[in-house]
């Protein structure tokens, strides 16, 4: 892994030919980088992948990323690693060879190299803590000799040929990095809340106070959100001095992510997904991915009689002295208000957070491709088989928005290998590959 701040000698800093930029050095970006390396090692065409992150590889699984304290456990099995499901490949004629190469980047290989594989098996294959998953991702990036740039992206610009990202390095210097493809990952900021109030905590602020053991004592607390971010916050909040905790989400109850073969197979192999109706796809996503807790978190919460579910979509929040009054809406019912003295806003990131970084020119290109003003629904409907926005050149890959159109596993960790297949196959078809390395086996 090559890591540093961008400069004149950085890949992609002076030319966009053969470069796929990835905003976010998390599991999706690392999976694409590792697969591209596997292809290049076999002398097959692949882009030069450059990961860009404000903090580090796997930052969202570390305290520095603001989404966790690193001590909670991964909700997905780690065996669904950067190569899973090891099915076909971006170059189908050489799929077996590529997948064999990807085994070098597997979770099992990581454990074997660190002499912990036997212990992990004997302990029943436990889900790793978030910080261990981050170590795995960093190990993959280093082993794949991935180009990683550390810096905060302040603007995303584009024309008909290239994406241009302006980065502010840790030392404050600004640089431009270019590429003829861009993949955007991650949920955006973890520091946002719906109300500025000392007792309404963002996800980042919650974990900051938790690490310092400074979570305010509370008689009535609430966590807004029904996904894994909210689940981890509830799991942690239950360890602090709180009398009652309300888990607020729109669903009729707190749903658990099922682990049956039928559900898992739909995440691992999305081949038949487009054949489902729009209503069926929305229903599957609602029941199995969005607004669900892992089985482990659900079991922990069931043991604590201070925690209960409150149904409703939070549509408003206002300060009432030292307390916070939330407005909850449910279809067909009167609007209700509830007062809490501690609230954690764990609703997760905004799907289109990256639009704030788009220049007017880049925003115009996206709007022309969507044929409408960018909205979450419009973007979801426009994601093609290669996880890029259809009709947009240069290509913009948005796996976090691909769940509805292409399969429920793409926005999460359920099929990272298939995600990299789709993106790299699309890059090959669009001619986004490192022409200097193709056919040589050298990088």
Automatic annotation (TrEMBL):
The keyword Oxidoreductase applies. Pathway: Siderophore biosynthesis; mycobactin biosynthesis. It comes from the Bacteria. Gene3D superfamilies: FAD/NAD(P)-binding domain. Its EC number is 1.14.13.59. It catalyses: L-lysine + NADPH + O2 = N(6)-hydroxy-L-lysine + NADP(+) + H2O. It is an enzyme of class 1 (oxidoreductase). Its cofactor is FAD. The gene is mbtG. InterPro entries: FAD/NAD-bd_sf, Lys/Orn_oxygenase. Signal peptide: none annotated. Keywords: FAD, Flavoprotein, Monooxygenase, NADP, Oxidoreductase. Pfam families: Lys_Orn_oxgnase. This is L-lysine N6-monooxygenase MbtG. Belongs to the lysine N(6)-hydroxylase/L-ornithine N(5)-oxygenase family.
């Amino acid at each position: 892994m090559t890591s540093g701040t961008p400069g004149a000698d950085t890949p992609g800093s002076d030319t966009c030919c053969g470069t796929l930029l990835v905003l976010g050095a998390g599991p999706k970006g690392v999976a694409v980088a590792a697969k591209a390396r596997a292809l290049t090692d076999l002398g097959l065409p692949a882009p030069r992948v450059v990961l860009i992150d404000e903090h580090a590889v796997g930052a969202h699984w570390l305290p520095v990323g603001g989404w966790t304290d690193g001590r909670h456990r991964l909700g997905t099995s780690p065996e669904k690693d950067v190569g899973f499901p090891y099915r076909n490949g971006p170059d189908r004629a050489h799929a077996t060879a590529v997948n064999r190469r990807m085994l070098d980047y597997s979770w099992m290989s990581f454990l074997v190299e660190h002499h912990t594989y036997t212990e992990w098996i004997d302990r029943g294959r436990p889900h790793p803590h978030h910080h261990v998953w981050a170590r795995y991702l960093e190990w993959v990036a280093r082993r794949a000799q991935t180009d990683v740039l550390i810096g905060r992206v302040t603007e995303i610009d584009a024309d008909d040929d290239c994406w241009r990202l302006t980065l502010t390095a840790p030392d404050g210097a600004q640089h431009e990095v270019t590429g003829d493809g861009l993949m955007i990952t991650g949920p955006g900021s973890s520091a946002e809340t719906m109300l500025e109030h000392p007792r309404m905590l963002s996800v980042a602020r919650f974990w900051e106070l938790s690490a310092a053991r400074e979570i305010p004592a509370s008689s009535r607390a609430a966590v807004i959100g029904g996904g894994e971010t909210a689940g981890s916050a509830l799991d942690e909040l239950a360890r602090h001095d709180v009398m009652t905790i309300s888990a607020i989400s729109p669903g009729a109850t707190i749903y658990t992510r099922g682990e049956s073969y039928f559900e898992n197979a739909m995440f691992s192999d999305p081949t038949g997904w487009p054949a489902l109706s729009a209503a069926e796809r929305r229903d599957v996503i609602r029941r199995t991915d969005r607004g669900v807790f892992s089985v482990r978190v659900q079991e922990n919460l069931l043991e604590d009689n201070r925690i209960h579910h409150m149904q409703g979509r939070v549509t408003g929040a206002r300060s009432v002295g030292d307390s916070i009054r939330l407005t909850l809406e449910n279809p067909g019912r009167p609007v209700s208000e509830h007062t809490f003295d501690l609230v954690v806003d764990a609703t997760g990131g905004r799907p289109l957070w990256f639009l704030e970084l788009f220049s007017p020119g880049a925003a115009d290109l996206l709007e022309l491709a969507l044929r409408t003003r960018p909205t979450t629904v419009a973007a979801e409907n426009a994601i093609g088989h290669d996880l890029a926005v259809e009709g947009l050149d240069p290509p913009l890959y948005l796996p976090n928005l691909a769940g509805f159109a292409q399969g429920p596993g793409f926005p999460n960790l359920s099929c990272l290998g298939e995600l990299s297949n789709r993106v790299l196959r699309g890059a090959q078809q669009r001619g986004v590959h490192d022409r200097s390395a193709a056919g040589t086996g050298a990088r």
